[in-house]
């Protein structure tokens, strides 16, 4: 927008005015003597504006646009969560590779949080098997970065933007042993299915020695006390077998296809 200053007789009937695009400013509403273009192109001045809420809204919008654009043509996919702290010589790392490869062989892209540990293992297994390996990273106070086995990576500033991408472009969740981040995604997925925000979204807990206590608590306490229904408790699947986990995903996907 351009600004045009028009001098008129300085009296009550015709006060001086400044036009800022479609807006007319008169009397005390007239701003400093500079134009919008000048302020845009002048590199000097304070930079506090980049930390304001209106600017954050634009960043959030840009993250959604970038994420949708990058993932729009991704084939059917499964998100696998797990700890970033899993060492490469840990048995869970090998399991992650096997799950990534099994998903690739079943025709699914493998999506992870893009970090190290179990996430890297899944991306590695998918990539080695010739499948599509996707990593959706997040800006953290400590350096993490996208692991080298990711074929398509997108970094996000905001957790809620990233979570939308996990849900929108996945047909299922597989949860390897993990911490608060894995628990957060697990229960968010369950809540979205429970409230029918997503129509079919199986959640597989892989590792009965790790997840067994949580699984039993959901059925023996949460369900038993009427806080959830049987259908909601059945959204969780517990297994120690890679073929069983991928089989659950395939079964749910075929059921979803029949209704769409």
Explain how this protein is built.
The protein has a seven-stranded parallel sheet with strand order 7-6-5-4-8-9-10, sandwiched between helices. It has helices at 36-41, 53-71, 91-105, 118-128, 159-168, 180-194, 208-223, 230-233, 242-258; strands at residues 3-6, 17-20, 23-26, 77-81, 109-112, 133-138, 152-156, 173-175, 203-206, 236-239. The protein is elongated and about 80 Å long. The chain is α/β, with parallel strands linked by helices and 260 residues long. Helix 3 runs parallel beside helix 4 and helix 3 (91-105) runs parallel beside helix 9 (242-258). Helix 6 links the parallel strand 8 (173-175) and strand 9 (203-206). It has a single domain (59-258), classed as Rossmann fold, CATH 3.40.50.
Q: What is the highest CATH level, the class?
A: Alpha Beta
Order of helices and strands: EEEHHEHEHEEHEHEHHEH
- The CATH architecture term is 3-Layer(aba) Sandwich
**Intertermini distance:** 47 Å
CATH topology: Rossmann fold
Strand arrangement, major sheet: 7-6-5-4-8-9-10
Task: List the SSEs and their pairings.
Elements: E1 3-6, E2 17-20, E3 23-26, H1 36-41, H2 53-71, E4 77-81, H3 91-105, E5 109-112, H4 118-128, E6 133-138, E7 152-156, H5 159-168, E8 173-175, H6 180-194, E9 203-206, H7 208-223, H8 230-233, E10 236-239, H9 242-258
Parallel strand pairs: 4-5, 4-8, 5-6, 6-7, 8-9, 9-10
Antiparallel strand pairs: 1-2, 2-3
Keywords for this entry:
260 residues, 10 strands, 3-stranded antiparallel beta sheet, 7-stranded parallel beta sheet, alpha/beta, Rossmann fold, disordered N terminus, single chain
